[in-house]
Amino acid sequence: LGLCISRASASVLNLNCCLVLLPMCRVLLAFLRGSQKVASRKTRRLLDKSKTFHVTCGVTICIFSVLHVAAHLVNALNFSENYNEDFLSLNAANYRGEVRQLYLMSVLVPGLTGVIMVLVLFLMCTASTYAIRVSNYDIFWYTHNLFFVFYMLLMLHVSGGVLKYQTNLEEHPPGCFNPNKTLRQNMTVPKSFEEPFPDYTTEPFREDLPVAEPFVQNNFMRICSEEPKFQSHFPETWFWISGPLCLYCVERLYRYIRSNKPVTITSVISHPSNVLEVRMMKDDFKARPGQYVILHCPRVSALESHPFTLTMCPTDTKATFGVHLKVVGDWTERFRDLLLLHSNQDTEILPIFQQRRYPKLYVDGPFGSPFEESLNYEVSLCVAGGIGVTPFASVLNTLLNGWQCYKLRRLYFIWVCRDIESFRWFADLLCMLHNKLWQENRPDYINIQLYLSQTDGIQKIIGEKYQALNSRLLIGRPRWKLLLDEIAKCNRRKTIGVFCCGPNKISKILHKLSNSNNSYGTRFEYNKESFS
């Protein structure tokens, strides 16, 4: 039973160790998501579940690793207690009862590599919990990169050759009659060395000597022509993980070459509520609205890098792209201090000849995200919570440059913030887009609703500059069910794309409401972005 469970769990581990790498091939996913010919909308929505798929495979690996270890503990006892005197090459132990010295668990290659793999997996599993990721992302980042050590040990783990199979089944079928072995077992010892041995060649069988029952199949006796020979199984794990592992390594090499040249930082803007905007330029950089990049600054951390959604994409006439990042951790704090002359510097864009000497910054990407689909629906509902507005900023910037070439014909934009100052991050962008659509006689193209959950300092935004937004500012939290019912009523029998980037509480509510039925025949398709 232990051997069956260990082999079955090993097969499950092979499959999941193969699949867990595929969601981490970001370039491949971005290509599939951006290709209209390769992937349909349903396929692209499945690709958006890549993180969930990765987590599911990881949890499965942890569960079946525990089962695999428990089964091998039983096997260690069985291999020792059931020592085979007849077929010595089949034994994993050197003698009966060797398990007391823990030989199988501490000396053999499978035992050593297995113990180290369990320790590595334990570190990766515990550091991947939500509490660790939020409190100290560095721990999660460094321990998760131990996966390379895990795969190297996995390749060594399967090379131990503990399990064996018989190679000469034709010459020695299982259960066959071996006359030489039988004769040796029944041979009598002479009284003196001078007395010759009996001649068994002329009289091979004697009725007074007990012999083993011969193996009879279909009334024919099967005679063994030679002793059984055994050989270790060829490890099947190589077939499972070699392809995905090579694919991942090739992609990482491609990403390293692509991001090897630092970008040119054109400007740095400090926004209210500890938000920093970085605008950059890079040769031959192209991106679609909704995509994200990974920033790496060696002066901040030699190994650590973080993903940030593009808030401004390069166009045919302008090569500048940018990101907004909220200063909430050690990495962003050190990055801000390197970019700004002073931490409390006011918003300022210096001319080219006055720009400070910024640190080297490397950009890896762009990579795909669910928000690329927001322009492919006829009607889209975009819900942002706080800094979660960044994916929609690139969509709004794209619409500002021209909306006629996209399928989108109506956009509902809902932004929920705790303080009034947060709306200033993209207040100018919203006002410019609003005025542009009014001048083009399309005021109904975008429906903007701003919700302020806290009323402290509400008077700060009131002014002529943001008059278009003041009429759309609401106090309190959205009543999501009434809001979606109103949208469904205005768009009967249509498919509406729902995109959310914000707190999990808002995401769960929208996900539940999107899956519920309504009386207007409107279908809501839910999409969510999350880097946590």
Automatic annotation (TrEMBL):
It is a multi-pass membrane protein. It is an enzyme of class 1 (oxidoreductase). One of its GO terms (biological process) is defense response. The chain crosses the membrane at residues 12-32, 53-74, 102-127, 139-158. GO terms for cellular component: endoplasmic reticulum membrane; focal adhesion; NADPH oxidase complex; nucleus; perinuclear region of cytoplasm. It is found in: Cell junction, Focal adhesion; Cell membrane; Cytoplasm; Endoplasmic reticulum membrane. Residues 258-373 form the FAD-binding FR-type domain. It catalyses: NADPH + 2 O2 = 2 superoxide + NADP(+) + H(+); NADPH + O2 + H(+) = H2O2 + NADP(+). GO terms for molecular function: NAD(P)H oxidase H2O2-forming activity; superoxide-generating NAD(P)H oxidase activity. Its EC number is 1.6.3.1. Keywords: Cell junction, Cell membrane, Cytoplasm, Disulfide bond, Endoplasmic reticulum, Glycoprotein, Membrane, NADP, Nucleus, Oxidoreductase, Transmembrane, Transmembrane helix. NADPH oxidase that catalyzes predominantly the reduction of oxygen to H2O2. Can also catalyze to a smaller extent, the reduction of oxygen to superoxide. May function as an oxygen sensor regulating the KCNK3/TASK-1 potassium channel and HIF1A activity. May regulate insulin signaling cascade. May play a role in apoptosis, bone resorption and lipolysaccharide-mediated activation of NFKB. May produce superoxide in the nucleus and play a role in regulating gene expression upon cell stimulation. This is NADPH oxidase 4.
